[in-house]
Design a protein that fits this description.
Elements: E1 7-15, E2 18-27, E3 32-36, H1 43-57, E4 60-70, E5 77-79, H2 81-97, H3 111-119, E6 125-127, H4 138-183, H5 185-202, H6 209-222, H7 226-245, H8 250-270, H9 274-294
Parallel strand pairs: 3-4
Antiparallel strand pairs: 1-2, 2-4, 5-6
Helix pairs in contact: 1-4, 2-3, 4-7, 4-9, 5-6, 7-8, 8-9
């Protein structure tokens, strides 16, 4: 069964630092475009995880999110003492460099007030930092990635079933419309016969039976669409075989759709019949919807 490139999966791992959540979202793409949107993943595990994702998901725009819900006991914030000392020293130096004549009574620096002001600087107090993911808890983290990837593939399979039903139904619609084109063949030939006779009559040319047949044969050869109909049926069969027989048919389907479109367009250009041209427009509409859907097939 085919898979969609659209998917979503989520899994959790309980670590000493708190609850780690792994989320993976995928959309269609020509290749595996993987983006890990977190600084929690250690650099030495980055390549391993990217390879795991590429192997399991094959291709798509793949966004990976890692979030940590820390334990209540780990929520304390840390004061960067060295940074505070540095800020205070800079302020004191600035104060010493100022011309004493600019100082106003009552505006002297009081150490406690200076410290209080510096502590309000946004970067001197930060969240407690530690390695959330370590070698010791890596098996739990990797298992969470595996569960999230399983969920993505299950989602893709459900979406793939809907895609399969839609595109196969539209291929059948094209084949039915191709039969409709055939039903207008006699009408088309009769119409051309009348046009040739009318043109000869208007020109005052008397056509004997042999000459008339020659004109008809010339026209039929020039505007014959039997080859296009045969090739279109073959392309539709190949489309279905590829869809049913290959694990990741998406890219190949795009090439087959191009060939289907070529035969449909040629049929329309040779039609010389309003009913056939209307049918061809409907075939093009079905094919365009197949093209749009196939872009999301893995």
């Amino acid at each position: 069964m085919i898979k969609s490139m659209t998917g979503y999966g989520r899994a959790e791992a309980i670590l000493a630092a708190g609850k780690l959540t792994v989320e993976i979202r995928t959309l269609n793409s020509k290749s595996a475009d993987i983006s890990i949107k977190s600084s929690l993943l250690p650099k030495d595990k980055d390549l391993l995880i990217r390879q795991k994702i590429a192997d399991r998901l094959v291709r798509g725009t793949i966004d990976v999110y890692l979030t940590l819900e820390p334990n209540a006991s780990d929520n304390a914030r840390v004061l960067d003492a060295e940074l505070v000392k540095g800020y205070c020293a800079q302020v004191m130096r600035l104060r010493d460099e100022m011309d004493s004549t600019h100082a106003r009574p009552g505006q002297e620096f009081i150490p406690d007030e200076l410290l209080s002001a510096v502590l309000r600087f946004p970067d001197v107090v930060s969240a407690k930092k530690e390695d959330v993911i370590s070698e010791g808890n890596w098996p739990e983290v990797e298992a969470a990635f595996d569960r999230a990837l399983d969920a993505v593939n299950e989602y893709r399979e459900r979406e793939g079933l809907a895609l399969y039903n839609d595109v196969t139904g539209r291929v059948q619609n094209i084949l039915n419309l191709e039969l409709e084109v055939e039903s207008h063949e006699k009408e088309r030939i009769d119409s051309v016969r009348e046009r040739i006779l009318k043109a000869a009559e208007e020109l005052g040319v008397k056509l004997d039976g042999e000459r008339f047949e020659q004109e008809m044969i010339f026209w039929l050869e020039k505007y014959d669409i039997n080859e296009e109909k045969v090739r279109l049926r073959q392309h539709c069969a190949y489309f279905m075989d590829t869809l049913d027989g290959e694990p990741y048919p998406g890219k190949k389907l795009g090439f087959i759709i191009q060939e289907m479109g070529r035969e449909i367009n040629t049929t329309g250009s040779k039609a010389n019949n309003a009913s056939i041209q209307k049918t061809v427009v409907r075939m093009k509409d079905e094919l365009e919807k197949i093209r749009e859907q196939s872009m999301n097939i893995l």
